[in-house]
Specification:
- The chain is mainly alpha-helical and 119 residues long.
- The longest helix has 15 residues.
- The protein is elongated.
- The model has no long low-confidence stretch (mean pLDDT 94).
Length: 119
């Protein structure tokens, strides 16, 4: 989108009440940074595919790699990122590690994003 495609005001008039209200509600910089970092995690289609797989089933890396047609190493790398973002968790089951969604917020975020792009 070119700058010319963005409409702007014809006059420069500041509405101090609106500016003050927004500034009072604005999260602090640390929280904004953390939120931006979380959304970066969703910026990779492989990680989105992993999350969709985990919507259906708690699963080990071996089965997840097979499902996605990827190497276990590649899947493990993406799972590490998802785990650091607290989107997935894991538990040991004998000699396997089973991955699952950390909570229902993950599903909600993805479903809302999907709804948004389908409108």
């Amino acid at each position: 989108m070119a700058l010319a495609d963005v409409e702007t005001c014809e006059v420069n008039e500041i509405h101090a009440d609106k500016v003050a209200k927004i500034n009072r509600q604005m999260p602090d910089e640390d929280e904004l940074y953390d939120l931006a970092e979380l959304f970066k995690v969703f910026g990779d289609s492989t990680r989105i595919r992993i999350l969709f797989a985990l919507f259906e089933e708690d699963i080990c890396v071996c089965d997840l790699a097979e499902t996605l047609g990827m190497t276990q190493s590649a899947v493990s790398h993406q799972l590490k990122i998802l785990k650091q973002a607290k989107l997935v968790s894991s538990r040991r089951d004998g000699r396997q590690v089973i991955y699952y969604l950390s909570d229902d917020h993950v599903r909600t975020i993805i479903e809302m994003g999907k709804e948004h792009i389908e409108e």
